[in-house]
Amino acid sequence: AQTSSENESSLCQKLAEANQSLQQSSAEVAQLRETVESLEATKSSVSAELQVANEKIAALEEKLTNKESYTKELLESAECLEKKVSDSTETNSKLELKLSEANNAISALQSKALSD
Question: Model's pTM, two decimal places?
C-alpha cells in the first residue's frame, strides 16, 4: 500500500499538471479572443469600405441615369430638329416652285407687253 506521503506527492503532481493544463488553456483562450477581436476589427473595416463602395456605385448609377435621360432629351430634340428641317425643305421647295411660276408669268407679261 502507498504511504500517505506518496499519495500526497501523486496528488500534488496531478494538481500541478492540471494547473499547467489550465494555464495553457487560458493562454489559448486569450489568443483566440485576440484573434476574434482582430477579425471583428477587419469585418468592421471591410463593412465600412463596402459602404463607401456602395455609395460610389449609387452615385455612378445616378449619373448614368441622368446621362441616359439627357441623351434621350438630346435624341428627341434632334428628331424634332430633323422634322423642322424636313418641313422647311418642303416649304422651300413649294416657294421655289411658286417663284418659278411667278417669274414665268412675269416673262410672259413682259413678252406680251413688248409684242403689243
Answer: 0.54
